[in-house]
Design brief:
Structural class: alpha+beta
Radius of gyration: 15 Å
Largest sheet: 4 strands, mixed
Shape: globular
Strand order of the largest sheet: 1-3-4-2
Number of helices: 7
Order of helices and strands: HHHEHHEHHEE
């Protein structure tokens, strides 16, 4: 039953696309004393050269500047990918109710026009890029105009791409 729910959520998310609401600021959830005392998780943030080249080529074909990797966005994306795998869901909203805007802000990135793409079932980052390129709402996210930073995360076969204009 849990796997069926997960697969239905994945299919629904793929069909519905992503939020595209411009946001200039967002508050992170209130910190609790317990959360403040807990050590921050150590997240390995790696870049994928093939993904970066593909994203930059896509943006160049549309007359846009290259996107810049950002460790804060990568941490937000990586933590969300790991959380989805660990808790068995596929959604832009974490099980604890946080949105990608709040997750990005929690990593210290000033949230200027943030967007998020999530992909399920890709064997590598280039496959996730191909999925997103074939989906108009996801493609629109990757073609955000102006100076754009991004972070890519993955766990298992779930990929998360957080993008934001630099503030």
């Amino acid at each position: 039953m849990r796997m069926t729910t997960f697969l239905l959520a994945a299919a629904g998310a793929a069909l519905l696309g992503c939020d595209e609401v411009p946001v200039t600021s967002a508050a992170a959830p209130e910190a609790t004393p317990e959360a403040a005392a807990a050590p921050a998780p150590t997240v390995a943030v790696a870049t994928d050269a093939a993904f970066e080249a593909g994203l930059d080529a896509l943006r160049a074909r549309h007359g846009l500047s290259a996107a810049t990797p950002d460790a804060r966005l990568a941490r937000a994306a990586q933590l969300h990918a790991e959380d989805m795998v660990r808790q068995g869901y596929f959604d832009h909203v974490s099980r604890d109710g946080r949105t990608y805007i709040q997750r990005i802000a929690a990593q210290g990135y000033p949230t200027c026009w943030p967007v998020e793409n999530i992909a399920f079932g890709s064997h590598d980052a280039s496959g996730a890029l191909a999925q997103w390129t074939g989906s108009p709402p996801h493609l629109r996210n990757m073609l955000t105009s102006g100076s754009v930073a991004y972070g890519l995360g993955h766990a298992g076969n779930i990929y998360v791409l957080d993008l934001a204009r630099t503030c």
